[in-house]
Every structure is written in C-alpha cells, then in structure tokens.
Amino acid sequence: MNNRKIIFNQPGAGYSLGALLLLFALLLNNPIIALAQKTTAGKGTAGLNTLTPKEKSAGWKLLFDGKSTDAWTGTKGNGFPEKGWVVENGILTVLGATDDSHASGGDIITKELYGNFELALEFKIPKGANSGIKYFVVNNFPNQKGNYLGLEYQIIDDANHADAKLGVNGNRTLASLYDLIPAKNKKANPVGQWNQVKIVVKGNHVEHWLNGTKVVEFERGSDEFRKLVAASKYKDLQGFGEMAKGHILLQGHGDTVHYRNIKIRNLENI
After folding, report:
1. Is the CB of residue 164 less than 8 Å from the CB of residue 191?
2. What angle (nearest 5°) sits at the alpha carbon of residue 153, between those of residues 151 and 158?
3. How far apart are the C-alpha atoms of 200 and 217, rounded to whole Å?
4. pLDDT number for residue 216
5. 78-82: which pairs have CB atoms within 8 A and are 24 or more residues apart?
6. What sections of the chain are H helices per DSSP?
7. Which of 9, 53, 198, 243 is found 20 to 30 A from 60 (Cα to Cα)?
C-alpha cells in the first residue's frame, strides 16, 4: 500500500462516502472495480443470438446471429427486403405499415427447407399486433401461385386484436395452430415483453410451446387433422400441411414484431 494520508474531515474537502470508498479501492488496486466494469459491460445484448457449447453439440444452428439475415429471403424475389425489416441492437424487427404504405416489408422465408425440426425463438409485440410464424410453407398450391402458405403458429395480442375473437373456440388466439387448433393452458407474458416460442416436428407429430409450456399437439395427416382443415379457410388447399418439407416463414402482416434468439435444429436422425 502506498504511504498516503487521507484526511476525512478536512474543511471544504466535500468528500462523500462513495468517493472515499472508491479512493480506497483504487489505493488497494481492489479487483471490485474491474468486476463492476465487467458486469456493466455485460448488460444489454450479451448472450443474445448465440449458442452454448451444449446447444452446438445438440445440433442447433442460428437462423439469426444478431447482425446477418443471410439465412432468410423475401417472398417477393430479389433477396431480403430492402424496406420494412430492420436489424438493430441484436433484434430482427418487421415494421408495421405506415399511412403511406399499406403493407410492411412482406413475409420472409428461410432459404432452406425443413421437415423434422425444432425451432426456437423469442418475440415481442406492441398492443394490438397480429402476425405469425409459418412452417411447412410452400408456394405451389393450385390457384395460389406466388402465395407462400403453411401451418401457422399465431402471434397476436389476444386482448386487443379482433381476429383473436374470430374462428372457432379460440383457434385464432396466441400460440394456436391458426384457424385449426386453439392453444390450451398457455402462460403468455404481457404485450411489450418477450415470449419464448418452440415448434417441434417429428414425422407427423407437431407441438407448439409457449414460455416452456406445451399448448398445442397434433398429428399431421390424421383423420382429425384433415377434418379440421376441411372446416377451415384452408379447405381448398389439397394436402395442406402434409408436405415432407417446407420453409419457415415470418409474417410481414402490417404490424410490428420483434424477434431474437432464432435457432433451429434438424431432428432427422434424433
């Protein structure tokens, strides 16, 4: 320790207790200072859009690393949309429509096709928003050329968007299989907070999860599933939701939605 005198009651010195403690720490080369600096720097986006060693060994891959949109392309051609989608502070955001633009940047789809997979991500929406995450998405249905259609994990503000009140028995509410199967026993975080999504597909078996709770479970191609499709808006789409593989799609539906920690793993051999 350096031989320095510290006077606590020097007239006019004006030392606060915090200043004195800081001075002691500096004199002693106290590691608390470095720890505090490290802790402060670690706040914010640290740990977002990354994979742990355990996740990597389990086959997880990032679909968004906080900076690049290379895994995605627009459904309107010409690559990723130049407008309507933004990347900022490690978050991928689809912007809501403005007064002079009816639509946002449009839908985006993965460049790769997926069959057996586990998809995980987090989303956050403002009040009154409505959107969705689609899977087994294709654009080759007769009379639907150019339209990318598939099964949909509904994202919506149940309390403040009219579509949540439509459909049958709540099958257009948050985390539902849109227009087909309502989500049950869900524990959603409030609007403006992050929610965790997981979609698991193994063969024809499909699960929707919300914040760690399984809320939807069904078998593609089953008699029950086909009856639901026949009574839905998809009734004229032969083989809807039963293809072997398809794209993952994030909707640009005219409302703002924020995404982060988007990752996927192939379950083909698991």
Report:
1. no
2. 135
3. 9
4. 98
5. 80/108, 81/105, 81/106, 81/108, 81/252
6. 17-27, 31-41, 53-57, 223-230
7. 243
Percentage of the chain beyond pLDDT 70 is: 80
Structural domains of the chain, ranges and CATH numbers in brackets: 1-43 (no CATH), 53-266 (2.60.120.560)
Q: Which residues of the chain have pLDDT under 70?
A: 1-46, 99-104
Cα–Cα distances (Å) from 225 to 18, 25, 221, 230, in that order, read 66, 67, 6, 9
Backbone angles phi, psi at 8, to 5 degrees: -80, -30
User: For residue 88, what are the β-bridge partners?
Assistant: 91
Kindly state the tokens that stand for 254. Answer: 């005219």
- Only one residue has tokens 């004199």, namely 27
CA-based max dimension of the chain: 88
| 71: number of Cβ within 10 Å | 19
Q: Distance between CA 54 and CA 24 in Å, rounded?
A: 42
Q: Check if the beta carbon of residue 196 is closer than 8 Å to that of residue 210.
A: yes
